[in-house]
Amino acid sequence: MAAELLDGRETAKAIRGEISEAVRLFSEESGRAPSLAVVRLGEDPASVSYAKMISRTCEQVGVRFSPHFLAEADEKEAVELVGGLSADAGIDAIMVQEPLGGGVSREAVIAALDPDKDVDGVHPVNAGRLFQGAGDFLAPATPSGGMELLDRYGIALQGKRAVVVGRSNVVGRPMAMMLMHRNATVTVCHSRTLDLATECRRAELLVAAIGKPGFITADMVSPGAVVVDFGVNFVEGKMVGDVAFDEVSVEAGWITPVPGGTGPMTNLMLMRNVLKAAEQRRRD
Question: pTM for the whole thing?
Answer without folding.
Answer: 0.92
